[in-house]
């Protein structure tokens, strides 16, 4: 297996640090628009090399694949670049993995009721082409989407006879020393995903709601405790119902009431806008100004404290037919990930899952063709290998 | 009386519209840095003329005073320009009026406990000079400070034998059609005054508190209803105890919980900063970006609905020695002020008070020398003349 890792940002660099400890691959070419970031990440292992790539250009991706005889393209950049990388890998005859999916566009008339273009629609429209040439695009294989989808498969196969709801629930108790307010992830992206109309699967169809709908306090395990969660647009809701029978699928993000209030305020004041406004003699995008006023999340690892939890709350009937409500989850402590890998817990937890998936593809445990989500594969070997990597998952009856 | 009105912004233009209906003066020279604004305001009356002024230059003010034989300088610009206008008037031998006072600077070590340089300190430091030449500087004669201070004098002379608290309370129920969030006054100035340490007079001394302290729901009269009020730095607290015996003096602003949340969020994200940050290739002040994203308050009058209330809550013992709690207030309905004068209620309510004061000075009812607040004069003729102008005040026992 020869991997082209596109993106040497937070998640890409953590991917490299995790992969460096495994022997299932022959080479990883780490490519970034900023070649110095790629070179920095590539020092971790002799099998790593660095390259420059323009992720907005399918040709640039295809060229690199051919140059390095790439078998698998691992997309670790911003979802704006999903389609060119996906197409570039296809043209080069390589398999493809990402941790998000192609972007949505709201319904033009009823954005908070009906879906327009959904997350992943552009990729699924190409599924037959991938299948016909026997190539695999494994989409949404980070932690959420990713591990959450593996949990859905596991619940359906081994825990439940009937599923009412597959509810992904994400929460953390992270704090950052020295800052009143310091998001541990890009505020630009958070604004984007939280202000898009959240999508819900219910009774055989997808629909949308207004942002921050259906607030719910979820009690997260391992000492994180109760966090206010709200509906957010996320890939799981589009992936799970394609392979796992369920009456309802939701994603709720434990933003906490403080963060929700900040996002609502930014929207109310028009500070989430990406188009430019005139300010004195210059023009700037207000959202860029907001990002410039906050600390860079990639540099916060050493000041962060606490744990992050990704998981899936499954409600339905157990194998014995009795009502069952179970939370399957994965917690990472920032102190541990910083000490073990030098990467903060949020990016580390995202990055470990595609490494596990690639190892299963390399040794033939997982195989397939077409555009598939993580729930299209057997969950047990994935969860076993995750535990073998030193990062076990948990299960709690609710 | 020959008046130099400096500033043809919202309040200055409303001052001109109100003064045009009175005959106590010979001439008003309306001066602004932007001479077109001055010319626009000057068309209201034959006795008005327009001029250009640099309000940051005392010499520019003195020159205009001498050129037009000015007897009274009326300062209607941003409080950053109080000192040059105050000094320029003094040098020209003119009397002076303003609607704010010279600015404060926080205590360097304990900003939220102790006062540093207080509002008006720089002006009061010059009081003897004004007194020795027999000239008057009447400071803080808008609505708040201004009418609120007149109420303090009235309460002490006619309603109370002993005063525990002089609590200015300002609230409104204004909405702006077509906007989720549209402040009816400058967001730049509101951030400045609300994020400065609020000052309180208690037991014979001034002290400060953290911003937004001592939240209290005050029930405003004439249908405005309950509004959340918090401590804000304001001139009344510095003025009233100099002339009126009281155990405590406070100012609480009915910002409402939504506006308070917005201001706290802007501060938390560093978006209240006035120094410039780099954003891509340009540099901007985040507070200017916030202002640029919001509608211009001067243009909102026709879309505004509701009433604004300024007043003073007095707690103590009545003339009969029994406990008494009375709110003295002045309410302006935006629909009325727009129809009658073409100016929105917040600026109109500010502007009427210095016109009334100038009329009392012109006819000799009020006289004095030195640096004096409105509470240094007899309140009754002021309140009677305000009513005669068609804008009566009210009184409510609480």
From TrEMBL, chains A, B:
<dbReference type="InterPro" id="IPR032095">
    <property type="entry name" value="Sacchrp_dh-like_C"/>
</dbReference>
<feature type="domain" description="Saccharopine dehydrogenase NADP binding">
    <location>
        <begin position="3"/>
        <end position="137"/>
    </location>
</feature>
<protein>
    <submittedName>
        <fullName>Saccharopine dehydrogenase C-terminal domain-containing protein</fullName>
    </submittedName>
</protein>
<feature type="domain" description="Saccharopine dehydrogenase-like C-terminal">
    <location>
        <begin position="142"/>
        <end position="390"/>
    </location>
</feature>
<dbReference type="InterPro" id="IPR005097">
    <property type="entry name" value="Sacchrp_dh_NADP-bd"/>
</dbReference>
<dbReference type="Pfam" id="PF16653">
    <property type="entry name" value="Sacchrp_dh_C"/>
</dbReference>
<dbReference type="InterPro" id="IPR036291">
    <property type="entry name" value="NAD(P)-bd_dom_sf"/>
</dbReference>
<dbReference type="Pfam" id="PF03435">
    <property type="entry name" value="Sacchrp_dh_NADP"/>
</dbReference>
């Amino acid at each position: 297996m020869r991997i082209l890792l596109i993106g040497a940002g937070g998640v890409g660099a953590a991917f490299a640090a995790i992969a460096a400890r495994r022997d299932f691959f022959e080479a990883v070419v780490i490519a970034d628009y900023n070649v110095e970031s790629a070179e920095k990440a590539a020092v971790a292992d002799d099998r790593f090399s660095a390259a420059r790539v323009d992720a907005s250009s399918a040709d640039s991706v295809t060229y690199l694949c051919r140059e390095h005889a790439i078998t698998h393209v691992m997309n670790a950049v911003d979802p704006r670049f999903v389609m060119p990388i996906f197409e570039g890998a296809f043209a080069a005859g390589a398999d493809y993995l990402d941790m998000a999916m192609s972007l949505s566009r709201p319904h033009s008339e009823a954005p908070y009721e009906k879906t327009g273009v959904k997350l992943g629609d552009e990729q699924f429209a190409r599924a037959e082409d991938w299948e016909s040439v026997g190539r695999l695009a494994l989409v949404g294989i980070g932690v959420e989407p990713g591990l959450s989808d593996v949990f859905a498969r596991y619940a359906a196969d081994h825990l439940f006879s009937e599923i009412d709801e597959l509810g992904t629930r994400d929460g953390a108790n992270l704090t950052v020393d020295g800052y009143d307010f310091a998001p541990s992830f890009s505020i630009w992206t958070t604004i984007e995903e939280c202000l898009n109309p959240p999508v819900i699967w219910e009774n055989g169809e997808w629909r949308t709601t207004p942002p921050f709908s259906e607030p719910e306090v979820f009690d997260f395990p391992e000492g994180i405790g109760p966090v206010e969660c709200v509906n957010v647009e996320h890939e799981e809701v589009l992936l799970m119902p394609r392979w796992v029978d369920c009456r309802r699928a939701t994603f709720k993000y434990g933003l906490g009431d403080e963060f929700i209030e900040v996002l609502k305020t930014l929207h109310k004041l028009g500070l989430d806008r990406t188009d430019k406004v005139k300010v004195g003699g210059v023009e700037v995008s207000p959202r860029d100004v907001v990002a410039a006023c906050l600390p860079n999340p990639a540099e916060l690892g050493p000041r962060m404290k606490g744990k992050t939890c990704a998981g899936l709350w499954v409600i339905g009937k157990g194998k014995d037919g009795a009502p069952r409500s179970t939370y399957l989850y994965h917690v990472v402590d920032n102190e541990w990930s910083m000490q073990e890998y030098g990467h903060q817990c949020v990016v580390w937890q995202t990055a470990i899952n595609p490494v596990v998936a690639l190892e299963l593809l390399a040794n033939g445990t997982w195989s397939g063709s077409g555009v598939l989500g993580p729930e299209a594969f057997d969950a047990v070997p994935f969860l076993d290998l995750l535990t073998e990597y030193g990062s076990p998952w948990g299960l709690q009856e609710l």
